[in-house]
Amino acid sequence: MRPNARSLRLNPITCVAHGLCAELFPERITLDDWGYPIVDPTPIPPELQEHARRATDACPTLALLLERERRH
Amino acid sequence: MVARRRPDRDGPVRRARRPRRRHDGHRGHDREASDGRLVEFVDGFLGVVQVVQLVHDDARELGEHVGNVWYDPDHGRSVERGPDGDLRRVVMGALVPSSTLWYTARGTGFVAVVMLTVSVVLGILTTMRWSAPRWPRFVTAGLHKNISLLAVVFLAIHVATTLLDPVSPVHLLNAIVPFTGGYRPLGIGLGVVAIDLLAALVITSLLRARIGYRVWRAVHWSAYACWPVAMLHGLSSGTDAATTWARAVYIACAALVLAGVGWRVSASILSPSSASTRRVTIRGATR
Amino acid sequence: MIAVAEPSAARASDEPRLLPQPSAARLVDHLARLGPAPRLAGARLLIGEVERAGLRGRGGAGFPTATKMEAVRARGARIIHGRTPIVVANGTEGEPLSAKDKTLLVHAPHLVLDGMVAAAHAVGADEAVVCVERSAGPVLHALDRAIDERRREPDGITLRVAPAPARYVAGEETALVNWLNGGEAKPTFTPPRPFERGVDRRPTLVDNVETLAHIALIARFGAPWWRSSGTEADPGTMLVTLSGVTRPGVYEVPLGTPLRRVLRNAGAHDVMGVLVGGYFGTWLTPRQAAMVTLSADDLKAMGAGLGCGAVATLTRASCPLGELARVTRWLASQSAGQCGACANGLPAIAGAVEHMAGGSDPDGSAEAAARRWFGMVAGRGACKLPDGAVRFVASGFTVFAEHMAEHGTRGPCAAFDAPAALPVPEPQGSWR
């Protein structure tokens, strides 16, 4: 894993299940039974970075985040 | 742009002699007539009479732009060009005929109102989570964004042509400080307010990641103020607002937005947990 | 029932340390029992001592206390001016099966206050707040009295009591901080965690009141003494709340004690299953309960944890499925409703368990749905409520599998209509 690889993280409080992220990045995001996204937290390879960026930009509530690895 | 020479009736068209000015020293020629309207005084009595006659005929045909002065139909008086009139004349005078600028201003303004209407409706559809089998939600959201940006482009042209038109009664100051100026201060002022609101909407949206969701959302509510203000501006100071086709379009726009707003309001009243906020209710359990 | 202690016997390694009898709620009794509080030690000295003691949080998460104290202290030291750290003592105890915090606060408030003061000095704070559920009248009363008594000899730390909303998740550290900041007692998204930005954006040390009581003891008597009880891997003592037994109550036990000894002491009988860690915890079979000790590693091997030390037994007089259904429904009602997976998933799971308990699941489809939802719900909230609820139900499915099969084939058992064994409080007011 590259040291500054990015991965997706969801703010479950802000998320209100618009679902655009799953439409734009189905490789890493699926929807649960109630329309809320299940986000794969593993690091994103370079060829998928653009899709990840589009998905985070498209979220109407800015709930989806693209973050570098950090301890929290 | 065509510089049309008037047919020789009384000898060759005599070019006007303009006093030398510093800022047009590099221009090698005087401005020719275009569309039959001269915006400079021509030496010679006969020339003046012809110009004035032509100008008044055109005024009745084209509306309110009349040569060097401009006729305010609301107050039945003439209004002088403002102090930047000469600059505008120099900048644009050699490039684009004044009427082209005017038509462009009218056209772009009208298109912008339609685009804003479509944008508002798409915004409502986004909030309501609408989608169809072949129309995913990201398309709605993406269109909303792009049409809003396109509306900004059209409005930029609308404002630029209005301000740069040498015979336009709207001056730069009127475009910055609303409700000032001699020409329909209320109507034009509404347009200025609409542009200000739109600027706030667009800038906060472009910087959404930096300012955070809450601030962005708070500002974005002003879209519901921006659209009616823009419509009122069009209706009150739009040159073509009185025509039938324009009225039809305005009514259609209003109907669309009212239908959208009605849908959104009814959805949030009927089931508070659905669509717009989606704060999920706990089903069946006591709180 | 309170464990017995002689006033001067607190120093002996086998005697109870936290819970005095007779009650030492008054300052004079407290000082007579334990001696005076130590003078302000160098900040890092106490943190170092707590680290040597190996104290872990007693609120349920079991996080190393010294690590948290150092994080707050370091953060506070980095800020030039304005935001000094603050200590929050968490005595809310929203877990219905736990009574240790309330008991400690009523019978030994000064020990907790000593701990708050010592921790405040250690992290560089000048203010300490103790949060208690506003419905716990006697606790609030005892604390007010104790703080009053201390006014005569101020030690530089402002102490105050905050009556918090009575809701299960209100005791979660970000929820408590959010409430103290004027918001609802609902968890917030992290980062930032309270240690970096909490009450009034200050570095905030949130510790359970029992943890702070242990800090007070360590400050007085040192780490080696504190480690003289318990085991090498799990040093010290802890308070456990026992219910479903003949002699329910709060007991202080050294860590590493076999669970069966604790249960026998409290008069457990006719046990069908043992719940360790409250509604946030894990069910154990009677055989597992007989083998395990009160040690973090030991319990982890069984998929369980110490949690807040609440242990409940279910006897054959009760219907486990009925109890599971009731408690799960209550847990679902305690959701803050902020996160879709929890707000939707917990009621769905509760519904499935109710179906199973009512005998309406002959083909096992409700169980299958519930199991599917376990994976879908756990880990996807802003707090650990969905994880805890899923753990509670899933381990219940394992321990009571036979019983579930009977409900499936023969319908509800005879005990289904028996009085409720596991307590479920009435809904309590607002989130603010």
Topology:
The complex is a heterotrimer of chains A (72), B (287) and C (432).
Chain A: E1 6-10, H1 20-24, E2 29-31, E3 37-39, H2 49-58, E4 64-68
Antiparallel strand pairs in A: 1-4, 2-3
Chain B: H1 45-62, E1 65-66, E2 69-72, E3 77-80, H2 85-93, H3 98-127, H4 137-164, H5 172-176, H6 185-206, H7 208-211, H8 213-220, H9 223-237, H10 244-270
Antiparallel strand pairs in B: 1-2, 2-3
Chain C: H1 27-34, H2 43-53, H3 65-78, E1 86-91, H4 100-107, H5 109-123, E2 127-133, H6 137-150, E3 158-164, H7 173-180, E4 204-208, H8 209-221, H9 223-226, E5 237-243, E6 249-254, H10 259-265, E7 271-276, E8 282-284, H11 286-291, H12 296-301, E9 310-315, H13 320-333, H14 340-357, H15 365-377, H16 385-399, H17 401-410
Parallel strand pairs in C: 1-2, 1-4, 2-3, 5-9
Antiparallel strand pairs in C: 5-6, 7-8, 7-9
Helix pairs in contact in C: 2-3, 2-5, 4-5, 4-6, 5-8, 13-14, 13-16, 14-15, 14-16
Describe the structure.
Chain A is built from 2 helices and 4 strands, in the order E-H-E-E-H-E. By secondary structure, chain A is of the alpha+beta class. A two-stranded antiparallel sheet of chain A has the order 1-4. Chain A has a two-stranded antiparallel ribbon with strand order 2-3. The mean pLDDT of chain A is 90. Chain B has 287 residues and is mostly helical. Chain B has helices at residues 45-62, 85-93, 98-127, 137-164, 172-176, 185-206, 208-211, 213-220, 223-237, 244-270, and strands at 65-66, 69-72, 77-80. Chain B has a 3-stranded antiparallel β-sheet. In chain B, strand 2 (69-72) and strand 3 (77-80) form a beta hairpin. The model of chain B is unreliable at 1-69 and 274-287 (pLDDT under 50). With 432 residues, chain C is α/β, with parallel strands linked by helices. Chain C has helices spanning 27-34, 43-53, 65-78, 100-107, 109-123, 137-150, 173-180, 209-221, 223-226, 259-265, 286-291, 296-301, 320-333, 340-357, 365-377, 385-399, 401-410, and strands at 86-91, 127-133, 158-164, 204-208, 237-243, 249-254, 271-276, 282-284, 310-315. In chain C, the strands form 2 sheets. Chain C has a 5-stranded mixed β-sheet. In chain C, helix 6 (137-150) links the parallel strand 2 (127-133) and strand 3 (158-164). Chain C is globular. Mean pLDDT of chain C is 90; it is low at 1-13. Chains in contact: A-B, A-C, B-C. Chain B binds chain C through residues 278-287, and chain C through 329-330, 332-333, 335, 337-338, 340, 343-344, 347, 350-351, 427.
